[in-house]
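Structure tokens please, single chain.
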Amino acid sequence: MFNKFYAKIKGNKLEDLDRRIEQCKNQIKVLQFSKEEKTKKLQHLKLENEILTEKYLRIIELILDRGIIIDILNKGYKIKEWDNLYLIKRKETMVICSKNNEVIKIFNKEESKELEKIIKNKNYSIVVTRIEGKYIKIQFRVKDR
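Here you go.
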């Protein structure tokens, strides 16, 4: 009687352990699948990051080689063609100002950070190249490479 009871308890424990083993095996399979999916996604993101970094570096090279033309909405600024403009840092943003300290363009934080990287330890110029009714064209050039 005691042996039957003891054997039944042991049998139940073994069945319980077998169920737990199967659950753990299933959980391992799910985790392995999830890991494989995340690894694929990571590889895809790394490749995408490399492509974007290459494009970014090419754009920076173009800006350094050729400069950049910026169109700004004309709000009646007191500037003339061929006036020099100045880049000033205000808090976390960069601002293009006229010689009269009139704010012409405010760059957002991200643009300001990139602009700071571009002009760091370099000479640059910002010149008004054309004033057309609604728009002002300015040219930003980095003189030193």
